[in-house]
Design brief:
Number of helices: 10
Helix content: 25-40%
Largest sheet: 5 strands, parallel
Protein name: Competence protein ComF
Distance between the termini: 70 Å
InterPro entries: ComF/GntX_DNA_util-trans, DZR_2, PRTase-like, PRTase_dom
Family: Belongs to the ComF/GntX family.
Bound molecules: zinc ion
Number of strands: 7
Radius of gyration: 20 Å
Pfam families: DZR_2, Pribosyltran
CATH topology of the largest domain: Rossmann fold
Strand content: 5-15%
Length: 255
């Protein structure tokens, strides 16, 4: 009795699936240990991750620790009251700490692009108030030399995944990074602002094509620290006609 071609295809498919599982056992995106969970989060890392939930600053998404019953929506944190950011709103999935940093570093620097669906799901949830009226998803760009070295823009991967899930168009080259900025780690707010000032630009031709004028944009980045990068990108996007910019990051610094 012969095997039908359709059966051969199925058998090859099954063998390849088994092969992939053997070659690449699922590893936790946080600590790298082998885990049999499908979501790349081991029990220890899951227990350590701090997801941000309400109540939070209506603008920058800073989580308020002191929960008061009469704290309604639309409350701003002290920072945003003092000086409103250039962006209209920001939300992050996680508090930036050792646990979330491990995920972000593996995703950015260790070729763990397989973490994209997991992180995209977290971003989807963090930005749940924004998707319904958004027009465009735009990732914070890498400078091309860094892109060549790293081979992928982690925020671009997230933007593409979010676009697939929401049906909102994404565009990875309309916002460009003109010069390589130093790592912002260890720099204070004003140095960060200086470092990213003038670092970004718009590709005008593409902006026209994708209808940036009047658009509500979702900007994707990995971490919100002082907001210097998000603000610099927002200013450029708004100069080019964007009407509204919301920022969604995997994690944010909470001091
Ligand atoms: Zn782990
Ligand atoms: Zn705020």
């Amino acid at each position: 009795m012969g095997i039908l071609p359709s059966q051969i295809g199925r058998i090859i498919g099954d063998v390849m699936k088994i092969g992939l599982r053997t070659v690449l056992p699922p590893r936790c995106g946080g600590c790298g240990t082998i885990t049999d969970t499908v979501h790349a989060v081991c029990a220890d890392c899951w227990a350590g991750l701090r997801f941000i939930s309400k109540p939070l600053c209506a603008c920058c998404g800073y989580p308020f620790e002191l929960v008061s019953d009469d704290l309604g929506d639309g409350i701003l944190c002290g920072e945003c009251l003092r000086k409103h950011p250039a962006f209209d709103a920001a939300r992050a999935a996680l508090v930036y700490d050792d646990f979330s940093r491990n995920y972000i570093l593996r995703f950015k620097h260790a070729d763990r692009t397989d973490l994209t669906p997991l992180l995209a799901r977290w971003l989807l949830q963090a930005g749940r108030d924004f998707w319904s009226d958004a027009d465009l998803i735009i990732p914070v760009p890498l400078h091309r030399t860094r892109l060549l070295k790293r081979r992928y823009n982690q925020s671009g991967l997230l933007a593409a995944a979010l676009s697939r899930q929401t049906g909102i168009a994404w565009h990875g080259t309309v916002l460009r990074r003109l010069r390589k900025t130093r790592s912002l780690g260890g720099l204070g707010p004003s140095s960060r602002k200086r470092e990213v000032g003038g670092a970004f630009a718009i590709n005008e031709r593409q902006a026209g094509k994708i209808g940036l004028d009047g658009a509500r944009v979702i900007l994707i980045d990995d971490v919100l620290t002082t907001g210097a990068t998000a603000n610099a990108c927002t200013r450029i996007l708004k100069q080019a006609g964007a009407m509204h910019v919301s920022v969604i990051t995997v994690a944010r610094v909470v001091r």
